[in-house]
Structures are given as structure tokens and as C-alpha cells.
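Re-run with default settings, no changes from the original entry. Doing this only to confirm the output is reproducible before filing.
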Amino acid sequence: MSLFAFYVVVVTLGILSMGFQLLASRLLSPHFGSAIDVWACLISTFLAAFSAGAMIGGWISNLEFASRRRWQIGWMTVAIVALAATGFFGRGMVDTIAISLEPGITPILLSCVGLFFFPVTALSSFTPQCVQFLATRGTPPGKASGLVYGVSTMGNIAGVMLTAFVLIPHFRVSTLLHIWLGVAVVSLAGLLRLLRAPSVP
């Protein structure tokens, strides 16, 4: 049951990460449109966040238990606070940036980094820790990495399809951002509980 719950959380985090990218595009489009420069900034921001999160999560995975727990709770807090800021204040922040700066790449990139980099980095930091979770319970490291990233990618695909074809056509973006926040709170709390369990010698 704990492994089933673990994979459910991994899939959910994958859904949250890529679905969030589509919500991000909808949040930006009223001011910046959906041209290639917007998508270039958006995709680059998400890739940078995935990269930073992976490196941070890999570092956290090798800490001793007490320090690891503190960093896990800290990054969970960053994810929740950053998602809440985007959900409740994101549109106003984009308004302010768009009005204050001259049109061009700068306001687009600043909006992407300010609104999306930190929540995605925080969410991504848990993926290497999920690999470590399996590896310390007897799964060979290569297999553990393949399982986690494979399952997470399936969640990414589901997140794109679900968000694009089911959620966005039927719900306001602000409502979906609040849903993202609630799901992230529940998923990360569940994952922290799973990661707290002792490893198998």
C-alpha cells in the first residue's frame, strides 16, 4: 500500500508540474499573447526550474535524516507559498510588470521567473528524493531512477492532456490555480509522510 501511495504521489506531482505550464501560459496570454517569445521564456523557465530542483533534491537526498527532514519541510513550504502567491496574486503581478516595463522579452521573462520558477523548483526537488526512497529499499539505483522518472513523465503527459482538454475549457484559470495549490498541499504532505518511513537495511 505504501508503494502504491508513493507512485500515486509521483504521478500527481508530474501532473502538477506540466499542467502548471499550461496554466502559466493562460495567465500570461492576456498581456503578452501566445507568440513564440512567450513560449520560449516559459519553457526555458520551467526547464531551468526542473534542473535546479533536480540538483537541490539530489543534494538533500544525501543529508543525514534530521537535516534532510528540515530541508524537505522547507522546500514543501516554498512550494506551497509560491503556488499560493501565484494563485492569489499572479494576475496582479503580471499586470504590474506589464505596465511598469517596456514591451519586449524582459517583462515576459521577469513574469515567468517571478511566478513560476520557485514553485516548479520546489516541486522538482522531490523527484531525486523519490529515487532515493526506492534505492534505499532494495531497488537498484538505475531501476529506481527509471521507475520514478518514467512514472513522473506519464504524470506529465496526463497533466498536459487533462489540463488542456478537460480543465481549462471548463474552469477559470484562477480556480484551477487554487485547485493546484490544494492538490500540492495534500500530495506533498503525503510524500513527506512516506519519506519519513525508515529504509529497509
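The mean pLDDT is 94. Residues 65-100 form the longest helix (36 residues).
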